[in-house]
């Protein structure tokens, strides 16, 4: 029950976005929200997350194992995508979207509900690793259909979140103190980023037509996200020497549904944003149905947390 209650605010803000678009229609310009989130609020979230806990072994290894699992699967997706999809944009979405979880909006509060506040440091750094994956790999695949490889790389280097992350790591490594008032402002910006992300998702969700949904794409993405990736993640976690607590946090972050950030990228690069929104919706429903079983799977392999 506590777990279900912890994710209720997530669905609340999604519904707010849906109602806004349904009520005001053309008065709501979703791309303006995307730009505000992607270029301003998310860099604040990145900085806040990377300066919350000191850098130690577990702090470094938790995102490393997370990325090991994701990168192992992405090469598999690149190989099989041409055999599954004939449309180039569907292939792009399949590769770029399938592995990007909602590590911020759902991962952080769910981690608190399951593992307590001591999980925040690990869920935050895994969220940053997820953003690195988005900024480097997802954006490359989205941009390559619109731009040349050179321009795709250049578009990555222009992203403020990437440079803010390097800056935040430097601040953390050298133990540069952050004034409590500045820290409070950063926290406000970070939570604002999460809220507006959910509202953006609700706005795009309002335009999804069930009859015209790309079911083949959505179901294949959910198969990868909720079955293949967790299996790979269990393998890597069991091979590591991390504590069962940290391993449990990593596995839960690999199991959570697709990120709303996927919708942002699809909108920015004009790559079927409504199909991506539908895939996020299917993934979120699938996760809600599997959450009970996920918890027992984690306990079976790693013990109580």
From TrEMBL:
Organism: Malaciobacter molluscorum LMG 25693
Gene Ontology biological process terms in this record: transmembrane transport
Keywords for the protein's UniProt record, in alphabetical order: Cell membrane, Membrane, Transmembrane, Transmembrane helix, Transport
One GO cellular component term: membrane
Predominant localisation class: membrane
TM stretches of this protein: 6-21, 33-51, 57-80, 92-115, 121-143, 155-176, 188-205, 217-238, 244-268, 280-302
Entry protein name: Permease
Keyword Metal-binding attached: no
């Amino acid at each position: 029950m506590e777990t279900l209650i912890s994710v209720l605010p997530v669905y609340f803000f999604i519904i707010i976005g849906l109602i806004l678009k349904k009520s005001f229609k053309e008065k709501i310009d979703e791309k303006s929200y995307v730009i505000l989130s992607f270029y301003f609020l998310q860099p604040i979230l990145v900085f806040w997350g990377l300066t919350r806990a000191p850098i130690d072994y577990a702090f470094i290894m938790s995102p490393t194992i997370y990325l090991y699992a994701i990168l192992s699967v992405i090469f598999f997706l690149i190989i099989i995508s041409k055999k599954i999809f004939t449309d180039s944009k569907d292939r792009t979405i399949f590769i770029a979207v399938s592995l990007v979880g909602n590590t911020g909006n759902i991962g952080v509060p769910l981690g608190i509900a399951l593992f307590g506040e001591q999980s925040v440091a690990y869920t935050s750094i895994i969220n940053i690793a997820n953003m690195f994956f988005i900024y480097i790999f997802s954006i490359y695949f989205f941009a390559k259909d619109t731009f040349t490889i050179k321009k795709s790389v250049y578009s990555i280097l222009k992203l403020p979140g990437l440079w803010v992350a390097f800056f935040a790591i430097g601040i953390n490594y050298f133990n540069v103190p952050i004034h409590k008032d500045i820290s409070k402002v950063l926290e406000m910006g970070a939570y604002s980023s999460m809220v507006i992300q959910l509202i953006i998702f609700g706005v795009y969700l309002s335009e999804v037509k069930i009859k015209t949904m790309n079911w083949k794409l959505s179901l294949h993405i959910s198969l990868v996200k909720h079955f293949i990736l967790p299996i790979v993640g269990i393998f890597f976690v069991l091979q590591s020497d991390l504590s069962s607590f940290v391993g449990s946090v990593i596995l839960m972050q690999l199991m959570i549904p697709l990120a709303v950030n996927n919708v942002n990228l699809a909108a920015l690069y004009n790559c079927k944003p409504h199909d991506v929104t539908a895939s996020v919706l299917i993934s979120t429903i699938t996760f809600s149905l599997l959450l009970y079983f996920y918890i027992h799977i984690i306990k079976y392999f790693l013990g109580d947390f």
